[in-house]
Amino acid sequence: QSVVTQPPSASGTPGQRVTISCSGSSSNIGSNSVNWYQQVTGTAPKLLIYSNTRRPSGVPDRFSASKSGTSASLAISGLQSEDEAEYYCAAWDDSLNVLVFGGGTKLTVL
Amino acid sequence: QVRLVQSGAEVKPPASSVTVSCKGSGYTFSWFAINWVRQAPGQGPEWMGGIFPISGTPRYAQKFQDRVTINADESTSTVYMELRSLKSDDTAIYYCARDVEAAPSSNVPFYYYGMDVWGQGTTVIVSS
Fold first, then answer.
1. Where would a tag sit more exposed on chain A, N or C end, judged by fewer CB atoms within 10 A?
2. Beta-ladder partners of A20
3. Is B45 at the interface with chain A, CB within 8 A?
4. How deeply is A5 buried, as exposed, middle or buried, from its count of CB atoms within 10 A (0-12, 13-18, 19+)?
5. Across residues B83-94, what is the average pLDDT?
6. Interchain contact, A99 vs B62, CB within 8 Å
7. Could you tell me if B61 lies within 8 Å of chain A, comparing CB atoms?
8. Chain A residue whose CA is closest to B61
9. Which residues of A touch B116 (CB under 8 A)?
10. How many Cβ atoms from other residues are within 10 Å of residue A38's Cβ?
11. How many Å apart are CA A1 and CA B7, to the nearest integer?
């Protein structure tokens, strides 16, 4: 059971905008930056967002993120079939002194 | 290009140890932290620990504190992760991953922004 909570699933149709939420506490999201990772089955996770809102080079601007208090969200606009993957949020937890990952959200493109 | 190349798959008996290596290339190795993340079958990622090569001081997740050792060899641009007293639930894919940003200074013991370059993963199977 993760200390950071995500919905287990999300879905959308091509071209649609979807959001994935991530809820934590004052010791993790509330006091540290949030990352978002995308993982396609059988491959390593890929960093989509760091420092709450920054995209590494090569990540399309269809992916955006925000944070407010102890919650964060990832938005994917112009949904594409290749966006079908598992999405994880992550943040450093000051109480546990560890990087914590959310339980993951399986995104299905209908 | 920036790459992390890990050592090959391992099959180990319970109670033994395993060492996985991770060799960096295409960037200034010493200035970027390296993290170790594992993923058991059907599970999410789990952070085990990391190291900033210049400081040489590892940071471990408490869960693994007594069983894991991470060290860096700047001369070969390689980070090693040893996990001891293996149990069946240590069966997983083990990844090394580089931080997205260079260290803010050489004086920090460890830092974390995010992991943008990942090794190919090393499958470790613990089985008698």
1. N
2. A74
3. yes
4. middle
5. 98
6. no
7. yes
8. A98
9. 47, 50, 56
10. 22
11. 31
What the block records as the tokens of A7 is: 């919905």
Contact B74, B30 (CB under 8 A): yes
**Which residues of chain B make contact with A98, given a CB cutoff of 8 A?**
47, 61-63
pLDDT higher than threshold 90 for residue B4: yes
Asked if B95 and A44 come within 8 Å (Cβ–Cβ), the reply is yes
For residue B110, CA distances in Å to A90, B49, B64 come to 17, 10, 17
Indicate the pLDDT class of residue B108, thresholds 50, 70 and 90.
confident
Distance between start and end Cα atoms, chain B: 40
The rounded mean pLDDT for chain A is: 97
Distance of CA B62 to the CA centre of its chain: 15
